[in-house]
Amino acid sequence: MVRTLLRRRKKALSAEDVTVSDRPMVRRAVTAAALGNTMEWFDFGVYAYLAGTIGKVFFPSSSPGAQVVSTFATFAAAFLVRPLGGLVFGPLGDRIGRQRVLAATMIMMAASTFAVGFLPTYASIGFAAPLLLLLCRLVQGFSTGGEYAGATTYIAEYAPDQRRGFLGSWLDFGTFVGYSLGSGLVTVLTLTLGSDGLEDWGWRIPFFIAGPLGLIGLYMRLKLEETPAFQKEAAAEAAERGAGEPGEQAAETDPVEAARQSGKGRLKEIFTRHWQAVLICMGLVLLYNVTNYMVTSYLPTFMTVTLGESDTTAQLLVLGTMLLVVLTITVVGRSSDRWGRRPMFMGGSIAMIALAVPAFLLIREGGILWPAFGCVILGLLLVVFAGTSAATLPALFPTRLRYGALSIAFNISVSVFGGTTPLFASFLVEQTGDTLVPAYYLMVAGAVGLVSTFFLHETAGRPLRGSGPMVETHGEARALVARSRTEAGRHARDVWLRLWHPLGGRGRGQSGKSDRRD
Q1: Quick one: 385 exposed, middle or buried, by C-beta within 10 A (0-12, 13-18, 19+)?
Q2: How far apart are the C-alpha atoms of 353 and 320, rounded to whole Å?
Q3: Is 19 helix (H, G, I), strand (E, B) or coil?
Q4: Residues 6 or more apart from 150 whose CB is under 8 A from it?
Q5: Burial (Cβ within 10 Å: 0-12, 13-18, ≥19) of residue 345
Q6: Radius of gyration (C-alpha) of the chain in whole angstroms
Q7: pTM score, two decimals?
Q8: Is 463 strand, coil or helix?
């Protein structure tokens, strides 16, 4: 009992344990990370809205349904290499720093998207055209494997504990702004050029715009500094490597420590010591991304190809849904700081199970009004997960493994479940003829998310694992240290009373009391 109580003694915080955030740097970090997501999802919005056109340009010999499936198969192929990108960029970000890796992923992502605009068509070079499209998508997918996890990690490690949800939501704000810009541009091109002009040459314009966006994002990321959490972790590891017996460099020569610091050692630690967090992360990512890709990538094609709506109607409805998400996402992020991450995910999962079928029944009604209501329901479900994920996922893992563990768990789940959503949904609808299959798909995702949330520990307002508290002002830091000392003093007093008070224990406590009486 004595040993247990002494182990539970609460250590007071010192001033060095509390990090005060640099507000200008936080703003730059959030902006640079969000801009990368904006560029990534600009491409996704363009690709989703141009799925029918790209199918005609690169797969002209297929039927319309097969063209859509082929286009989404190329879309899904990029997600197959995302886990590989996560395996490479994630552990690398934990070893050499978040900022360097984020700059590298930005270069690759912008270059591969920009290159799509220069590709020759099937009519020019035949079967080589879709192969080149596939190659560009694979490079983009590989780079994206390190993008979202790195950006969420970067923002989370810069954000004050009490505002992590609000600041993290700006990352996905950039996501949906990028999608809205991409889809809005395609809508404008469709209205101005028509289907023939878009198929002839207009489809290239959105991909050309990705080049300048990438250069802007790269410039901003090169101006960033490393996060305070990573700097402290790197300093602590450097101190450990420098410690040891006199005349020896223990950490550098010890094979056990060398294996622990290596990429393979970190991967082993992720899957042996943090496998529960990995599974929770994968479940929450599945919930978010199945909803995300169902709405952003599949819904426009579902309404045009399956339901027979006009391109303009479908594009405007989904674009309006994205604007709704953009307008509400930071409100959701701020609410998660106030109410907690678990209630947000729990409520969203239950609502998904209950409302997916009604939403698609409304979309099937045709026209504008009822499908608009259905899209609003899906948009509100999506924003609950989008506004909460960026603050929730990084908090699952400790600092030294955060980038790598999040990259691996996130990209495996996205690749297997998220990115394949348009492909599986379109295939199942074509095979079964049941237009409610997408709703059933969403209900399954909601059930998985509900189970994952049940095992999720609340992290709102608390320091990240492996890191000390982070606050906005020096006054908050002093107040936190003073409060910690008071709590530590009270805890020490309680331990002392439980050890020595006659009502607090038997045996040693009783003998101690009799000794004092003597």
Answers
A1: buried
A2: 23
A3: strand
A4: 89, 90, 93, 98, 101, 102, 105, 403, 407
A5: buried
A6: 26
A7: 0.81
A8: coil
What count of other Cβ atoms lies within 10 Å of the Cβ of residue 318?
30
- Alpha carbons within 13 A on the beta-carbon side of 406: 28
Q: How far apart are CA 204 and CA 323, in angstroms?
A: 24
Token output for 372: 């608009």
Q: Write down the pLDDT at residue 224.
A: 81
Tell the burial category of 200 from Cβ atoms under 10 Å away from its Cβ (0-12, 13-18, 19+): middle
Length of the chain: 518
3-state secondary structure of 379: helix
Confirm if 101 and 402 have CB atoms less than 8 A apart: no
Residue 52 tokens, joined: 């029918």
- Residue spans of the chain under pLDDT 50: 1-2, 5-8, 244-253, 255-257, 259, 504-518
DSSP bridge pairs for 471: 20
One-letter amino acid for residue 139 of the chain: V
Q: What is the DSSP letter of 470?
A: E
Locate 175 and state its tokens. 């996501």
Alpha helix (H) residue ranges in 419-503: 421-432, 437-454, 474-500
